[in-house]
Amino acid sequence: MSELWSKKSHEELKDTVFSALSENVNYTKEPILGIPASYLDDKVFNQDDSFLQNAPFISTLVQNPNHIGCHTLGKSESFFKGTQAIEKEVIRICASDILKGGEEEFDGYVASGGTEANMQAIWVYRNYFMRVHNAELSDIAIVCSSDSHYSMDKAGNILMLDVFKTPVNEKTRDVEYDSLTGLLTEAVSAGKKHFIVVCNMMTTMFGSVDTIGTYTKALNDLKLSYKLHVDGAYGGFYYPFSEEDNQLSFANPAVTSITLDAHKMAQAPYGTGIFLIRKNHIHYAHTEEASYVEGEDCTMIGSRSGANAVAIWMILSKNGPHGWFEKVYVLQRRTLWICEQLDRLEVPYYRHPKSNIVTMRASHITKELAQTYGLVPDKHDNPSWYKIVVMDHVTLEKLTPLMQSFDSE
Ligand SMILES: *Cc1c(COP(=O)(O)O)cnc(C)c1O
User: Fold this and answer.
1) Which of 18, 251, 331, 397 is the most buried (most CB within 10 A)?
2) Is the dihedral of CA 239, 98, 265, 10 positive or negative?
3) Which of 283, 318, 353 is the last residue of a domain?
4) For each successive 10 residues of the chain (409 residues), what is the average pLDDT?
């Protein structure tokens, strides 16, 4: 971990955020006549100083900075440069401290969510293959696993790319060399020449983690042209802490970009997906026609709230790296407790040892039980699995009655 990410007191958070806000434009005090933006409607949202002075996040929401564009490229909208600098710091903390990018610089931005961040990655690589390798749309394929998030299918549909999904091992939920090689060979026969590979750092339904080496070995053995993205929408704020020594980081040269969602395990407000990519790639998603935006627009979204970046920065800074390890440690302990109970009760389940998701076989769970405890199925008609996601609010106190209902069956 570098020194960039450190634990800060509430006073320090306040100082940093208020000083950033003071560097943004002030619609009340300055003549700002040309942008279609203002503070939140003051007939509805309380802008009383005594209410806002201790609330840096709410103050940011009220001042409503727009973070349109990408702020790691050097030049961006000068109206909101204070809070944009905070977003830049969020990108650095995530890429360097959490995902081991070291001193290297990265591009990235706070996207609407994991869906957008995954699509942004696929968009960048699609354009890269088309521009640099003269590829046609039909030459390019998305490759992921059958446990990957449905955002890959959305991206395939919107960006007009075929999606190839490799089956996973039913027991380990990991990708396997032979089936992957078979799938890639099939794709090559179907005319695919360039591959956008998405590797999972914890899947949505199982919390399973793909062995990235299986992907890179299969691709390299077949001498295929590829770019590799890691989908850490769920796991990005968990797995790097539960398994420090892992291959799904920027320490691995095969990884070009990573998605993380702060609105899942980091408990940030919705609208806090994070897209991170090595330098010299994001310009493949540059929209030249975005001429009224100062700097560049290399993002999929247009206007977006700067309050989201501030929220992530505050959460990371309040906890600090040690606090984050402790948070994950507690969730790991609780998850282990669930597994011990299920073993004793002989309820079959899948759990990756470094994950906080426990996915139980539906055969042991009635619809009523699932409803009472808010268990989520893999599919709504005729489910095969139900999962427990061990979040901050999923305490032993709330878990015990579920285990007791298994006991009494
Ligand atoms: C949740 C999730 C996504 C999509 O994220 P949104 O923030 O809902 O758009 C993508 N991939 C994985 C693995 C996820 O868990």
Assistant:
1) 331
2) positive
3) 318
4) 83 98 93 90 91 95 96 86 97 97 93 98 98 98 98 98 97 97 98 98 98 98 98 98 97 98 98 98 90 84 97 98 98 98 97 98 94 95 96 96 86
Q: Examine residue 64 and state whether it is found in any structural domain, yes or no.
A: no
State the distance from the centre of ligand 1 to the C-alpha of 402, rounded, in angstroms.
Answer: 27
What amino acid is encoded at 361 in this protein?
Answer: R
CATH number where 365 lies: 3.90.1150.10
SS3 assignment for 23-44: HCCCCCCCCCCCCCCCCCCCCC
Nearest CA to ligand 1 atom 4: 114
Residue 169 sits in which domain range? Answer: 71-318
Residues 6+ away with beta carbon under 8 Å from 67: 80, 83, 84, 87, 109, 110, 304, 305, 306, 308, 309
Cα(18) to centroid of ligand 1, in Å? 32
Pairing of strands 194-200, 140-145: parallel
For the full predicted model, state whether its pTM sits above 0.90.
yes
